Amino acid sequence: MTRRPVGETGAVDTTTTTAPTTRRRLRAEILIVLGLSLGEAAVYAVVNILARLTLTTPLGEQSTALNPSRSPRPYLDLVYQLLGIGFALVPVALALFLLSEPGRRATARIGLDGTRPWRDLAAGTGLAALIGVPGLGLYLLGRALGVTVEVQASALAEHWWTVPVLVLAALKNALLEEVVVAGYLIERLEQLGWGPRAVVATSAVVRGAYHLYQGFGPLLGNVVMGVVFGEYYRRRRRTMPLVVAHTLIDVVAFVGYALLPAAALAALGLA
Description:
This protein is an all-alpha fold. It has one domain. It is built from eleven helices and two strands, in the order H-H-E-H-H-H-H-E-H-H-H-H-H.
C-alpha cells in the first residue's frame, strides 16, 4: 500500500495500491476487531430492540440502566466495576497494536497523544457542546414520541468510589468508541479503498447501531455524532479531541445522573 503525506489540515491522501490478498486480510481483521468489541454490542443491541418491540409494554414505558451495580457488597462491586472497565479496553489495545507500523506508533498515527494538549482540550470541549445539547434534545424528543426507553445513566449505589468509577467508565467508553470506530475503522476502510462518504457513513452507522437498545432517539443521535466525529477524524487525523469530547459528555450524563436529586431528574425527563 502507498500513502501520500499528511497535508496542512491533517487530511491524508488515501490513494492505495493494496493487493487483493491484503484486502482480504484487512476485511477479516476488521470483522475480528469489531466482533470482539462494538460490532458484538451492535448485534446484541439489534436483538435487544427487537425483543423490546415485541413486548406488550410500549417502548416508551420501558427502561434500561447504564453502569449497574454488580454486587450488593460494596468492595466486591468496586472490584467488578474496575475489572469490567479494564477488560473492555483490551480491544483498544488490539486496535492500536494492529495499527502500529515500524518506526511509527499507532497513537501517533491516529492522534491519540499529548503533542497538542490545549488545542485538543479546546476542540474536544467545543465538540462536546456541539453534540451534547442536541443529543439530550433528541433523547427527550424520543421519550415524548414513545420511541426511546428511559435510560438510567447510573444505577450504582452511593459509595465513596461511585463518582471516580463513573468517570473511569466515561473515559473507557470514550477510548473504546473513538479508537475503534473513529480511528481504527476509518483507517482500515480507507486502506480498502473506500471513499470518504462511505467511510464516515459506515463509522456513524456502527456507532448508532450499538446504541439501538436505548431506542430510536439515541440511534439517531449517535449516528449524527458519528458523522460529526468521523468527518473530524478524517480531516484532522486526531482522536484525542474526540476522546475528550466523549468523556465530557458521558461524565456529565453519568455523574450528573448520580448526583442530581430525583426531582431535578424528573423535571429533565430523565427519571
